[in-house]
């Protein structure tokens, strides 16, 4: 990754890749290091909800510690105008992110305090996409025992 | 001890509503999350899954308790509130009024009320 990409990026974020023009990074919760926010900056405004739902689908099928955080293109450009412009976004963005997540979940040191930026090879040698998504539905919102 | 956190949760929820109606959305997001967290903590104290002295990974524990006891949509809403709190307290990007949708707040109010009820 070049310093040019890092310019203007939230300081604590660790950049993972650029997927269809969207910057993908992760950052640990400042108060609880075991919580990791997977952040996608630059998603077209009308795709934010769809991308977030797709991210939850894949995260829910894994034991990944991620919480997805999707930032719209207009919000990204207004807050981080120097580093991101859409490159070649198309409808394949969610698929690209799913591939990325399936690779990320195999990182053994992601939740450690000194997690390192993945090597560029990591971004190009992704494991197969986890496609068997089981949608879990619940009859009730809560199943707490009284 | 759980009763104290129930009171704190109620207080923070009221403060959240006041801040939101006054257009202080970053502060509102912070109080909103901690109102939820305190309700979950009250439940955890009562059931013995958390102690008052717990300070390590408490937000992970709260997240896991919500995941184990609530539907996926409620769990996702709780995680959204957690993410908003981090942004509100640590980042330059502001929390916006549009992020407090009625559906989102209703989900979180349900969550809070359920945990408060079980902790009381």
Topology of this protein?
The complex is a heterodimer of chains A (146) and B (120).
Chain A: H1 3-6, E1 14-19, E2 22-29, E3 32-43, H2 48-60, E4 66-72, H3 73-79, H4 93-104, H5 120-124
Parallel strand pairs in A: 3-4
Antiparallel strand pairs in A: 1-2, 2-3
Chain B: H1 2-21, H2 25-47, H3 58-69, H4 72-90, H5 102-119
Helix pairs in contact in B: 1-2, 2-3, 2-4, 2-5, 4-5
Total helices of chain A: the number is 5
What integer is the average pLDDT of chain A?
64
Specify Rg of chain A, calculated over alpha carbons. 16 Å
Number of strands of chain A: 4
Overall 3D form of chain A: globular
**What gap, in angstroms, lies between the N and C termini of chain B?**
10 Å
The description of the largest β-sheet of chain B is:
none
CATH-wise, what's the superfamily of chain B? Answer: Nucleotidyltransferases  domain 2
Q: What is the oligomeric state here?
A: heterodimer
Contiguous low-pLDDT stretches of chain A (5 residues minimum) are 1-6, 108-146
Instruction: Tell me the structural class of chain B.
Output: mainly alpha
């Amino acid at each position: 990754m070049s310093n040019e990409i890092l310019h203007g990026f939230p300081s604590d974020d660790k950049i993972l890749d650029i997927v269809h023009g969207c910057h993908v990074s992760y950052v640990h919760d400042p108060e609880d290091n075991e919580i990791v926010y997977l952040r996608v900056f630059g998603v077209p405004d009308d795709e934010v909800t769809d991308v977030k739902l797709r991210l939850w689908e894949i995260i829910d099928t894994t034991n990944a510690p991620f919480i997805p955080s999707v930032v719209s293109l207009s919000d990204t450009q207004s807050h981080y105008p120097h580093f991101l412009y859409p490159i070649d976004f198309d409808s394949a963005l969610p698929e690209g992110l799913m591939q990325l997540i399936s690779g990320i979940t195999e990182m053994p040191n992601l939740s450690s305090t000194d997690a390192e930026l993945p090597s560029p090879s990591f971004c190009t040698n992704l494991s197969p996409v986890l496609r068997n998504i089981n949608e879990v539905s619940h009859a009730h919102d809560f199943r707490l025992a009284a | 001890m759980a009763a104290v956190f129930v009171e704190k949760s109620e207080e923070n929820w009221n403060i959240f509503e006041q801040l939101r109606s006054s257009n202080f959305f970053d502060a509102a997001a912070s109080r909103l999350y901690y109102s939820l967290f305190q309700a979950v903590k009250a439940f955890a104290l009562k059931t013995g899954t958390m102690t008052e002295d717990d300070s390590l990974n408490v937000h992970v524990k709260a997240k896991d308790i919500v995941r184990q006891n609530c539907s996926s949509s409620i769990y996702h809403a709780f995680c959204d509130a957690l993410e908003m709190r981090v942004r509100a307290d640590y980042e330059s990007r502001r929390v916006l009024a549009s992020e407090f949708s009625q559906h989102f707040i209703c989900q979180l109010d349900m969550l809070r009320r359920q945990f408060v009820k079980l902790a009381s």
